[in-house]
Amino acid sequence: MLIERNAPHIQALDKMDLSKIHFINNRAGGAYMAKYNIGVDYHKRFTYFVVKNSKGVVLKNGQVINKKDHVQKFLEGFTSDSAAVLESCRNWCVMHDWLEDIVDEVVLANPYKVKAIAEAKIKTDKIDASILSDLLRADLVPRCYVAPKNVREMRNLLRERIYFVRMRTMTKNRITTIFDRYPEEKAKFKTWTDLFGKKGRVQLESINMSESDRAIVNRELDYIDSINTFIKDIETVIKENFKLSKNAQILKTIPGIGEFFSMLIDAEIGDINRFKNEKALACYAGLVPSTYSSGGTTHHGRLIKHSNKLLRWAFIEAIIPAIRSDEKLRFEYDLLRSRMNWNKAKAAMGRKLLTIAFHCLKKKQKYKKLNRLELEEYKLRRAA
Prior knowledge:
Elements: H1 8-15, H2 19-27, E1 36-42, E2 46-53, E3 58-65, H3 68-74, E4 82-87, H4 92-100, E5 105-109, H5 111-117, H6 125-137, H7 149-179, H8 183-186, H9 198-205, H10 211-241, H11 246-251, H12 259-269, H13 278-285, E6 289-294, E7 297-303, H14 309-317, H15 319-325, H16 327-339, H17 342-363, H18 372-383
Parallel strand pairs: 1-4, 4-5
Antiparallel strand pairs: 1-2, 2-3, 6-7
């Protein structure tokens, strides 16, 4: 349900004294009761703050340059018995970490759900910050999980590695496209195992092509070498600063999930206990289809968009090595392919790997492959 900013119930929320409501929530073990509720609208160069008391009275508001000392000076007098809320946006962690040192509690809000709860026809920084402050007073903020700083640092390094790996793949594809201009020469590639390895580089030199294309290929190959150096440097930093956690060690036992994927999945999931069941984790990873239901008719569409795309990518990428190394998973994949096309089977198989990961992490147990007898019994049960 969409609540407009000028709707009567939101106007009433502005004037309502919520101190008693917060007191009841506190007695029930609910949200933190704050005397000062600070709405934060964070931008690249500046941030807009709105400070309200428990009755919704605006005590202070204004625009502040994004410097920690400026923020601290602006909030002087409102840092004791206070709570602040900001939306999860690009580089939200900068302001979040500053506010953690300034106020008593910092809440990270889900921007998509905030928009669904309260949306203003007239959008300004002041209105956005004011809405967040009102939602904080009423304990209606849809919260996001905030990973510890060390986990966020690991995420940044792993994501940077993914970026360079993708750039390397794009560069290799560009080189291959150049060789499409020489079909007779390209026919030799079928006999080469590693086109961009040491032996492949020597053979690439033997290809007959124009001088301009040769110059392009050489520049691209030099770029690949630079990318390989970047990737090795990142991996060195990861190994020196982060040990393989217990959860990552468990994930590494699952077929298709190696050391890199285990660290990535562990970092992106964070605390597994924040997910009630495997369905909740699948929604977070975007491995569930969008659903439209009306008038007794239900339609399932593509995978949901608002999700952790890296987590979904990791489980999808793990499918091929998983079905190659585990007969049970290969059997499951063949069953799926017999009923649906590749794209749907890929999503369903990624969901199965995610479910395995969820239960392994929840139970703190390593993945156990079935022996031949157990596998035959499993196939009979699935066929029944």
